[in-house]
Amino acid sequence: MENEKFIINGYxxxxxxxxxxIIGSGAASLNAAVSLHSMGQKDxxxxxxxxxxxxxxxxxxxxxxxxxxxxxxxxxDSVTEMAEDLFNGKCMHGDIALCEAQGSVLAFMNxxxxxxxxxxxxxxxxxxYKTDHDQRGRATSAGPYTSRRMxxxxxxxxxxxxIPVLDNHHCISLLTDKSGxxxxxxxxxxxxxxxxxxxxxxxxxxxxxxxxxxxxxxxxTSVYPLSQNGSTGMALxxxxxxxxxxxxxxxxxxxxxxxxxxxxxxxAIPRYISTxxxxxxxxxxxxxxxPDFKSMLKAIFLxxxxxxFDPGKVSxxxxxxxxxxVHNEINENGRNVYIDYTRNPSWNHGEIFSLEDLDPVVIExxxxxxxxxxxPIERLEALNAPAIALYRENGIDLSTEPVQIxxxxxxxxxxLKANIWWESxxxxxxxxxxxxxxxxxxxxGGSALNSGQVGSFRAAQFxxxxxxxxxVENSAFFSETEMILKKILALSKEWMRPGKPDNNNKYLxxxxxxxxxxxxxxxxxxxxxxxxxxxxxxxxxxxxxxRASSVSELSDAFLLLDHCITHxxxxxxxRFYLKEGGRSRxxxxxxxxxxxxxxxxxxxxINPELCLFDRDVEKKIIEVGxxxxxxxxxxxxxxxxxxxxxxxxRIWKEYLEEIYLDC
Length: 663
Fold this sequence. Notes:
The protein is α+β, with helices and mostly antiparallel strands. The protein has 19 helices and 21 strands.
């Protein structure tokens, strides 16, 4: 790794010259760094806006799931079957599904080798369970903080290998060559620097691995950690293509302490209550929408392993009816909603909660888990005591107080387009982790963690074999990037000019409100059209009206611009899907009220027409590009799972000659 200082238009800029820049410090980014190092490519550098600030180190659930090929027991499994299950989630390319399935064992065992404590019995059998959109029992867990344990293990390896890290470096722009076809570096702000004319840092690199997570910062109602923001807009404006941007995942979560309330949090069968804004007029609002007590209690229980909102599970008193009722109670009735573990649910008609009267499916599960207890908190204690301790550590005692909830955005199944080596169509850019849009419409719970590990390993593998040279000399690098560098520096100078109105917080609030209203679990074409117009106008004026008075504020200003770009492109993708006749699917309901705007949904609209994947817009992958603030959209055929010929001698020859690296 080389670095030197240069002066451009009065700015003193430090420039690092390296083979591979890794942006972000989540589990996928760190695995990419460790994998590259193990493969012999040690000319690498990690730049991150906040070490450990991403979703990996700060998110989880009751027992956060890692999805992999089954490795024990008598139930049969195979790479092909796992690939088919991933592929059958729709709008996922078959070759990507095959890579994620095939790479799952290697990725999982690497984490085990690094010390992540996934449970096994005395024979070494890795126990599994079923997760959402999974019938195989491939899921495993290292507890509520599985991804944190992954981060800690990988971070320890980064430290042991002495891989250089630049903390508090916010990457604000990807830099391309003059043709705009490949990434050749990046520009960052060193937030620790006080003088903005000395805060910019350049990276002249052959490759960029982008591991900055999903677009967490663009939603108002969110369970993403507050430290997670995302930088998808930076890649889109550089020329990378997005795909499946319509597909976000939503579910019930606590909002004071941001945490997914899945699994045992629901299987304990707590009360759902609402109050007015002052905490008065308490009522158990679910009672109004279920025909009897037993069906309501079963729906609450099933919400545990059917956690993500799914329009296909709304009708016939399905578990996702609960999400819809929570959403309406908050957004239409203006009330606060809570989950309460101190008392059992009750019924309007005087029926008393009784364990013996529960649905047989519920009784069997609680009995096998030794959790047939008298109250929700006792059942939760028996099912998963750490789930209670987790909230206590964050200032909430579930044994004495209810927890406020909402239906929150949790994951983006879409993101940036990439091939089987996780390389973007913008060459030498490798999006890994959630920023990579490989997941399709329906994904098994925990498959995103597997995808991040498999993808980052494959990116490292490709780079170490095909893209291992040093970048061009700095003089040639400056020649290629001079125009965009001067443009960014001029923009920052304009933003730092005193006397401008401070609109930053207003714009950020506007973006988040717009996305939660128009890109949430209820989507209406008229509402989305208006949102697109407003997002386009905001993008145009934000560049002129953003301001900053310090390096830290300048970093926030570039982040705000990224959010402006990201939410504009995401809304345009949603608009296209609805305009072309796309129906309810994934984690959202599509309603159509000609001439009526808003997100209101009434009782007679809770069973909308579900997506049958028989229309072009439903069965093809929506790809989105951005050029000069103009969105270009096309639909791409889904690639089938490849038919493999695994004759050993031929594979051996191709491996030795590295023919397998050809895309």
